[in-house]
Protein backbone atom coordinates (compact mmCIF):
# COMPACT_ATOMS: atom_id res chain seq x y z
CA UNK A 1 0.00 0.00 0.00
CA UNK A 2 1.26 3.44 -0.91
CA UNK A 3 1.00 5.59 2.22
CA UNK A 4 1.77 9.08 3.42
CA UNK A 5 1.10 11.28 6.44
CA UNK A 6 -0.55 14.61 5.77
CA UNK A 7 -2.46 17.54 7.16
CA UNK A 8 -5.88 17.82 5.55
CA UNK A 9 -7.34 21.34 5.28
CA UNK A 10 -10.56 22.09 7.15
CA UNK A 11 -13.56 22.54 4.78
CA UNK A 12 -13.49 26.36 4.51
CA UNK A 13 -9.78 26.36 3.74
CA UNK A 14 -10.20 23.49 1.29
CA UNK A 15 -12.71 25.63 -0.57
CA UNK A 16 -10.32 28.61 -0.65
CA UNK A 17 -7.50 26.38 -1.88
CA UNK A 18 -9.82 25.05 -4.57
CA UNK A 19 -10.46 28.62 -5.74
CA UNK A 20 -6.72 29.22 -5.87
CA UNK A 21 -6.36 26.01 -7.90
CA UNK A 22 -8.94 27.36 -10.37
CA UNK A 23 -7.10 30.67 -10.61
CA UNK A 24 -3.77 28.93 -11.12
CA UNK A 25 -5.28 26.53 -13.65
CA UNK A 26 -6.66 29.41 -15.75
CA UNK A 27 -3.15 30.92 -15.82
CA UNK A 28 -0.89 27.86 -16.01
CA UNK A 29 -2.97 24.98 -17.41
CA UNK A 30 -2.06 21.42 -16.47
CA UNK A 31 -4.03 19.06 -14.26
CA UNK A 32 -5.90 20.62 -11.37
CA UNK A 33 -5.92 18.60 -8.16
CA UNK A 34 -9.50 17.82 -7.11
CA UNK A 35 -10.62 19.64 -3.96
CA UNK A 36 -10.85 16.42 -1.95
CA UNK A 37 -7.17 15.64 -2.67
CA UNK A 38 -5.70 18.94 -1.48
CA UNK A 39 -3.27 18.31 1.40
CA UNK A 40 0.08 19.03 2.97
CA UNK A 41 2.40 16.01 2.98
CA UNK A 42 4.42 15.65 6.18
CA UNK A 43 5.96 12.26 5.42
CA UNK A 44 5.84 10.11 2.30
CA UNK A 45 6.20 6.46 3.31
CA UNK A 46 5.96 4.81 -0.09
CA UNK A 47 5.04 1.16 -0.37
CA UNK A 48 4.20 -0.43 2.99
CA UNK A 49 3.18 -4.04 3.74
CA UNK A 50 -0.36 -4.52 5.01
CA UNK A 51 0.79 -5.70 8.46
CA UNK A 52 2.98 -2.62 8.84
CA UNK A 53 0.14 -0.43 7.63
CA UNK A 54 -2.05 -1.82 10.41
CA UNK A 55 0.67 -0.84 12.93
CA UNK A 56 0.80 2.63 11.45
CA UNK A 57 -2.99 2.95 11.77
CA UNK A 58 -2.72 2.12 15.49
CA UNK A 59 0.16 4.52 15.99
CA UNK A 60 -1.59 7.42 14.25
CA UNK A 61 -4.86 6.81 16.09
CA UNK A 62 -3.00 7.11 19.41
CA UNK A 63 -0.91 10.10 18.36
CA UNK A 64 -1.44 13.66 19.59
CA UNK A 65 0.29 16.46 17.71
CA UNK A 66 0.86 20.00 18.99
CA UNK A 67 -1.79 22.28 17.46
CA UNK A 68 -0.39 24.94 15.17
CA UNK A 69 -1.16 27.60 12.63
CA UNK A 70 0.63 27.62 9.30
CA UNK A 71 0.55 30.80 7.24
CA UNK A 72 0.27 30.31 3.51
CA UNK A 73 1.68 33.37 1.77
CA UNK A 74 3.27 32.44 -1.55
CA UNK A 75 3.02 30.59 -4.82
CA UNK A 76 5.71 28.16 -5.83
CA UNK A 77 6.64 25.69 -8.51
CA UNK A 78 8.60 22.48 -8.95
CA UNK A 79 9.93 22.71 -12.48
CA UNK A 80 10.44 19.10 -13.54
CA UNK A 81 6.96 17.70 -12.73
CA UNK A 82 5.38 21.08 -13.56
CA UNK A 83 3.87 21.40 -10.11
CA UNK A 84 2.26 24.64 -9.01
CA UNK A 85 1.79 24.92 -5.25
CA UNK A 86 0.98 27.31 -2.46
CA UNK A 87 3.10 27.46 0.65
CA UNK A 88 5.10 29.80 2.81
CA UNK A 89 8.11 31.97 2.10
CA UNK A 90 9.69 31.32 5.48
CA UNK A 91 10.26 27.89 6.97
CA UNK A 92 7.66 27.26 9.67
CA UNK A 93 9.46 26.06 12.83
CA UNK A 94 6.42 24.16 14.17
CA UNK A 95 5.94 22.23 10.93
CA UNK A 96 9.65 21.50 10.64
CA UNK A 97 9.65 20.22 14.23
CA UNK A 98 6.56 18.08 13.60
CA UNK A 99 8.03 16.60 10.41
CA UNK A 100 11.31 15.93 12.24
CA UNK A 101 9.55 14.20 15.13
CA UNK A 102 7.52 12.01 12.79
CA UNK A 103 10.64 10.89 10.97
CA UNK A 104 12.35 10.38 14.34
CA UNK A 105 9.80 7.62 14.95
CA UNK A 106 9.36 6.36 11.40
CA UNK A 107 12.97 6.09 10.28
CA UNK A 108 14.19 3.65 12.97
CA UNK A 109 11.14 1.49 12.22
CA UNK A 110 12.19 1.30 8.58
CA UNK A 111 9.37 3.32 7.03
CA UNK A 112 11.02 5.05 4.11
CA UNK A 113 13.71 7.68 4.43
CA UNK A 114 13.65 11.19 5.77
CA UNK A 115 13.91 13.56 2.78
CA UNK A 116 17.01 15.73 2.52
CA UNK A 117 14.84 18.81 2.29
CA UNK A 118 11.32 19.56 3.57
CA UNK A 119 9.37 22.16 1.60
CA UNK A 120 5.85 22.27 3.06
CA UNK A 121 3.45 22.92 0.19
CA UNK A 122 -0.04 22.21 -1.12
CA UNK A 123 0.05 20.99 -4.71
CA UNK A 124 -2.66 22.63 -6.82
CA UNK A 125 -1.59 21.72 -10.38
CA UNK A 126 0.50 19.03 -12.00
CA UNK A 127 2.07 19.13 -15.45
CA UNK A 128 1.44 22.86 -15.72
CA UNK A 129 2.18 24.37 -19.12
CA UNK A 130 3.93 27.35 -17.53
CA UNK A 131 5.34 28.13 -14.12
CA UNK A 132 5.06 31.88 -14.57
CA UNK A 133 3.47 32.70 -11.27
CA UNK A 134 4.18 36.42 -11.11
CA UNK A 135 0.68 37.67 -12.03
CA UNK A 136 -1.15 35.36 -9.67
CA UNK A 137 -2.95 37.11 -6.81
CA UNK A 138 -1.25 37.45 -3.42
CA UNK A 139 -2.02 34.80 -0.83
CA UNK A 140 -2.77 35.35 2.84
CA UNK A 141 -4.31 32.22 4.31
CA UNK A 142 -3.99 30.87 7.84
CA UNK A 143 -4.23 27.09 8.34
CA UNK A 144 -5.08 26.00 11.88
CA UNK A 145 -4.42 22.30 12.46
CA UNK A 146 -4.45 19.88 15.35
CA UNK A 147 -4.57 16.50 13.62
CA UNK A 148 -2.73 14.58 10.97
CA UNK A 149 -3.99 11.74 8.80
CA UNK A 150 -2.56 8.52 7.41
CA UNK A 151 -3.56 8.43 3.76
CA UNK A 152 -3.50 5.63 1.22
CA UNK A 153 -2.83 6.64 -2.36
CA UNK A 154 -4.33 4.38 -5.03
CA UNK A 155 -4.39 4.68 -8.78
CA UNK A 156 -7.25 3.60 -10.99
CA UNK A 157 -8.34 4.43 -14.52
CA UNK A 158 -9.54 7.85 -13.34
CA UNK A 159 -6.22 8.71 -11.75
CA UNK A 160 -4.92 8.98 -8.21
CA UNK A 161 -7.27 8.84 -5.25
CA UNK A 162 -6.55 9.31 -1.57
CA UNK A 163 -8.26 7.45 1.25
CA UNK A 164 -7.90 8.32 4.92
CA UNK A 165 -6.91 5.26 7.01
CA UNK A 166 -6.41 6.93 10.38
CA UNK A 167 -6.66 10.31 12.10
CA UNK A 168 -4.62 11.35 15.11
CA UNK A 169 -6.17 12.47 18.42
CA UNK A 170 -7.31 16.05 18.69
P1 LIG B 1 0.86 11.18 -9.11
O1 LIG B 1 2.20 10.73 -8.60
O2 LIG B 1 0.16 10.11 -9.89
O3 LIG B 1 0.92 12.45 -9.84
P2 LIG B 1 0.28 11.99 -6.40
O4 LIG B 1 1.68 12.54 -6.40
O5 LIG B 1 -0.82 12.86 -5.95
O6 LIG B 1 -0.09 11.45 -7.83
P3 LIG B 1 1.45 9.99 -4.80
O7 LIG B 1 2.61 9.90 -5.75
O8 LIG B 1 0.92 8.73 -4.23
O9 LIG B 1 0.24 10.72 -5.48
O10 LIG B 1 1.91 10.95 -3.63
C1 LIG B 1 1.18 11.16 -2.45
C2 LIG B 1 1.80 12.34 -1.72
O11 LIG B 1 3.16 12.05 -1.38
C3 LIG B 1 1.87 13.62 -2.56
O12 LIG B 1 1.77 14.74 -1.68
C4 LIG B 1 3.25 13.59 -3.14
O13 LIG B 1 3.74 14.87 -3.43
C5 LIG B 1 4.05 12.94 -2.03
N1 LIG B 1 5.17 12.18 -2.56
C6 LIG B 1 5.12 11.26 -3.54
N2 LIG B 1 6.34 10.72 -3.77
C7 LIG B 1 7.19 11.33 -2.92
C8 LIG B 1 8.59 11.22 -2.66
N3 LIG B 1 9.36 10.36 -3.32
N4 LIG B 1 9.12 12.01 -1.72
C9 LIG B 1 8.36 12.87 -1.04
N5 LIG B 1 7.03 13.02 -1.22
C10 LIG B 1 6.45 12.27 -2.15
MG1 LIG C 1 3.44 11.48 -7.08
TrEMBL record:
<feature type="short sequence motif" description="HXTX 2">
    <location>
        <begin position="121"/>
        <end position="124"/>
    </location>
</feature>
<comment type="similarity">
    <text>Belongs to the 2H phosphoesterase superfamily. ThpR family.</text>
</comment>
<feature type="active site" description="Proton donor">
    <location>
        <position position="39"/>
    </location>
</feature>
<feature type="domain" description="Phosphoesterase HXTX">
    <location>
        <begin position="9"/>
        <end position="85"/>
    </location>
</feature>
<comment type="function">
    <text>Hydrolyzes RNA 2',3'-cyclic phosphodiester to an RNA 2'-phosphomonoester.</text>
</comment>
<feature type="active site" description="Proton acceptor">
    <location>
        <position position="121"/>
    </location>
</feature>
<dbReference type="InterPro" id="IPR009097">
    <property type="entry name" value="Cyclic_Pdiesterase"/>
</dbReference>
<keyword id="KW-0378">Hydrolase</keyword>
<dbReference type="InterPro" id="IPR004175">
    <property type="entry name" value="RNA_CPDase"/>
</dbReference>
<dbReference type="InterPro" id="IPR014051">
    <property type="entry name" value="Phosphoesterase_HXTX"/>
</dbReference>
<dbReference type="Pfam" id="PF02834">
    <property type="entry name" value="LigT_PEase"/>
</dbReference>
<feature type="short sequence motif" description="HXTX 1">
    <location>
        <begin position="39"/>
        <end position="42"/>
    </location>
</feature>
<protein>
    <recommendedName>
        <fullName>RNA 2',3'-cyclic phosphodiesterase</fullName>
        <ecNumber>3.1.4.58</ecNumber>
    </recommendedName>
</protein>
Amino acid sequence: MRLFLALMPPPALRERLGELADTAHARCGGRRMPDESLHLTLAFLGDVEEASAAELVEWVQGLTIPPGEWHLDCWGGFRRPGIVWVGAQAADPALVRLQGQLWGTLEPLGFGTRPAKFVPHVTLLRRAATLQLEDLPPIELPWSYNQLELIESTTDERGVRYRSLAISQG
